[in-house]
Amino acid sequence: MVTDTTYTGLDEQQLGDGQTWYDLYNWLLPLVEMWVRDSGVTSWYGQQREIAEDVAHEAVARTFRYNQRAHRGEMPPIGSLKALSRVIARNYFRDWRKKDWCLVRPTQDGDLYQSSIVTCDVVDASQVAIDHLMMDAIIVMVAQVVAKFPRGQKVALLTDLANMSDLDGEPSLLEQALQAVGVQLSDYKRPRSDDPGERGRYAALRSIAYKRLKHEVQV
């Protein structure tokens, strides 16, 4: 089984080492196969293996590209290749499942696919837990990226987040993640400016910041 490789332990030679990514793929594939097998998507019956392989391949490829950018200093360092690849794979799997959820596999007579309204009232506790873990990892990544934004963009984005957040209770995960990188979200909570020019500059910087965040956090 592949060890839990960390970014800090990878040099340029290891980044290009195919064995690292082959081992990561072999670690990830059984997890994805389990997700696909338990997905309940009828149109996947008979091709679960191929779908799982596609998801695992795509997740490892995206992890590799992210790791290259992190190595160049364009993105925050990766704490664990396994953790990141799992988050990416889970998100990719969920998007694919959502798209195919209402498809019904053709019958042996060769009938065409037909739409079917599918409802699912059963919530898998393990699914909920995994979703929370994925969201946690993404929020931590967002905090690391925002902390490195240019000052104007960072202030505009954090001000918007602070004004939308309830900062009186227990610190949210976002607050905790920002605190870990030296940012106190409550410091950015402030009333809206009465000056039209100032509001315009703030709106422009906020828009740029959100677009930049969307571009840099692609998992």
Quick rundown:
Helix content is 61%, strand content 0%. It has helices at residues 12-15, 18-37, 48-71, 81-100, 125-146, 151-164, 173-180, 196-216.
Description of the structure:
The chain is mostly helical. The protein folds into two domains: 7-122, no CATH class; 141-216, no CATH class. The chain is built from eight helices and no strands. The chain has helices spanning 12-15, 18-37, 48-71, 81-100, 125-146, 151-164, 173-180, 196-216. α5 runs parallel beside α7 (173-180). The longest helix is centred in the N-terminal third of the chain and has 24 residues, at 48-71. The radius of gyration is 21 Å and the shape is elongated. Mean pLDDT is 76; it is low at 1-15 and 104-126.
Assembly annotation: single chain
Overall 3D geometry? elongated
Count of domain modules:
2
Q: Which runs of at least 5 residues are low in confidence (pLDDT < 50)?
A: 1-15, 104-126
Q: Distance between termini?
A: 24 Å
Separate helix tally: 8
Derived structural class: mainly alpha
> Which percent range fits the helix content?
55-70%
Element order, helices and strands? HHHHHHHH
Number of DSSP strands? 0
